[in-house]
Write a structure and sequence with these properties.
The protein is α/β, with parallel strands linked by helices and 445 residues long. Helix 3 (68-78) links the parallel strand 2 and strand 3. The strands form 3 sheets. Strands 2-3-4-1-5 form a 5-stranded parallel β-sheet, sandwiched between helices. Helix 10 runs antiparallel to helix 11, helix 11 (219-240) packs across helix 16 (323-329) and helix 12 crosses helix 15. It has helices at residues 6-14, 32-43, 68-78, 100-104, 106-112, 132-140, 158-164, 169-181, 187-203, 207-216, 219-240, 246-254, 256-261, 269-272, 278-290, 323-329, 334-340, 347-361, 400-407, 409-412, and strands spanning 22-25, 46-51, 89-94, 116-121, 149-152, 294-300, 311-320, 366-370, 376-377, 379-383, 386-393, 417-421, 426-428, 431-435.
Length: 445
Amino acid sequence: MYRRKIEKTFQQWKSKSNRKPLIVKGCRQCGKTSSVLDFAHKNYQHVIYLNFHEHKEYKTFFAGALAVDTLVLTISAGIKGAKFVAGETCLVLDEIQECPNARSSLKYFKLDGRYDVICTGSLLGVNGYKTKEELAEEASASIPVGFEQTVPMFPMDFEEWLWANGIEEQHIDYLRDCLQKETPVSEGIHQRMRELLLRYTVVGGMPEAVAAFLETGNMNDVLEVQHGIIDTYKADMLKYARQEDKPRIRECFDSIPAQLAKENKKFQYAVIRKGARSSQYAGSLQWIEDAGIIQRCHNTSITELPLSGNALTDIFKVYMTDIGLLVSMLEEGTAWSILQGNLLAYKGAIFENLAADILCKMGRKLYYFQKESGLELDFLIRYKGECCPLECKARSGNSKSLQTVLKHPEHYHVFHALKVGDYNVGRNGSLLTLPFYMLFLLSEQ
């Protein structure tokens, strides 16, 4: 069991005297169930686990009255060893989206207050295709607004990857100190962090893929895990999407590497299929986003705060939430090329998605800036109270657009910028350059 940041969220939730049932929402296989069960077994004398995805029969527990005493009686009769003790029992409801009545019951567990409930959901909110019976069940159920707390969970982020590789807090504190003082990182730590960054790029943060790499060091084992996860996503598209949307969702998903390979990485429906239009595919793309598989990066009309207020909803780029899964979708040998630093024309796309991976797992929304004149900034972030351009370069190189923006603060209202790449800490006027592995430290907003 790897150390995960969500453990702190769980502890904060449990410390509240008037806590609501907790729902942990995230893409499939990002570690939700293992993290929840690890926390529950460490903090409760009794843990009752119901997985609605693997055991459809558990849905019958919630088919009748949802009064807590009735549910306790039903579940304890149906699950051997299930024991409900006030203040000492945690009920874990896995893949709760498959049992709408179980979600409705959260209101009654909250009002009752004797037992804590933690739920997980992989496809909460997706526009699914269901049978008539399932639609009727969903229609009769109700989401308990005001009686549940939802928290997002992502695959392991870069800092969690560092922890899994034995990097301790003192090392991260040292990097943070180098950032604050703008001093170069010592050569030994610099080289180790460069190596770990490249490995994270090909492995990503899916816990099973991380475990495969750390246990065997064999990239073939990692790719096998990653391909299995991709296959699971595709199976979900076939199982849960509306019948008429299924082929379009698959086409959208399969087009992502080609979208990122373009010089202009703006998402274009015509790349999916010649003649494709937004009206045909917008819902399919939304399905993939709602499933947590991708993240959109919206263009902004101006380089000013608030970024969300200036975002253009119909102009965006699309990145995979987990960089390792993107690499696994590329042609055979790509992982080896990344580790060797030999990516040719595709390196920009990979390192942009790497930055998107790190930023979105920090909880940041993604934005960029592009004008028809050709001026483009990879990302815009809120940093130290300013709108700050962030450029990503796999190697050192000129950033003409960034220089243009910095030379004209009267027009763009940008006074400081960041550039991350394969180099050490340095400053040139209003431009701060950082090694790519420091990106996860840019938490100040």
